[in-house]
Amino acid sequence: MRFMKRPNDFLFRALVVVASLSLAVLSVLVIYSVVMRYVFSDAPDFVEPIALLLVIVIAMFGAALKVREGGHIGLDSLVKKLPPKGQLIATSFQHICLIVFAVMIFFGCLQMVEATAEDRIPIIGLPESLRYCIPVIASVCIAMFSIENLLALFAQKQK
């Protein structure tokens, strides 16, 4: 269990920092854009594509962070009413579904990275594939966090 915890602790902290910085930058960009548009009547073009990238980072990394914390979407009210063995099965199934979902995101977005590698995001000129690299990274984190939670679940059961 410890072999998963250390790397996942590092990943978790890195995701928190990146997602937090992305949220801060997004907030500043939106304020800047609003001020420029309504005070100076000069809306900057670059804000929207950068903001879209930041929203993808915040959403995908935030989802991975919630998986690590066990705060992902679940039917807790139903699961809590099940007997202990049923709770174990339901929670295990939930984590397996998350792992399958992460694998599907990984391969789907990896195909999009390859397909859009030559394209550029208008205005800012960054590779279009950057939009799909973010979910690739997040899907690896989601899978790793789900595996850690699954291992912890069975380690706890054996005690």
How many domains is the backbone divided into?
A: 1
Radius of gyration: 19 Å
Strand content: under 5%
Number of strands: 0
- Uncertain segments: none
Count of separate DSSP helical elements = 5
Shape: elongated
Major sheet attributes: none
Explain what this protein looks like in three dimensions:
The structure is a single chain. The longest helix has 37 residues, at 2-38. This protein has one domain (2-158). The radius of gyration is 19 Å and the shape is elongated. It has helices spanning 2-38, 47-69, 76-80, 84-115, 130-158. The chain is mainly alpha-helical and 159 residues long. Helix content is 79%, strand content 0%. The chain is built from five helices and no strands. The relative contact order is 0.15.
Concise description?
The protein has 159 residues and is mainly α. The chain is 79% helix and 0% strand. The chain has one domain (2-158).
Q: What brief labels describe this structure?
A:
159 residues; mainly alpha; 5 helices; elongated
SSE arrangement:
Layout: H1 2-38, H2 47-69, H3 76-80, H4 84-115, H5 130-158
Helix pairs in contact: 1-2, 1-5, 2-5, 4-5
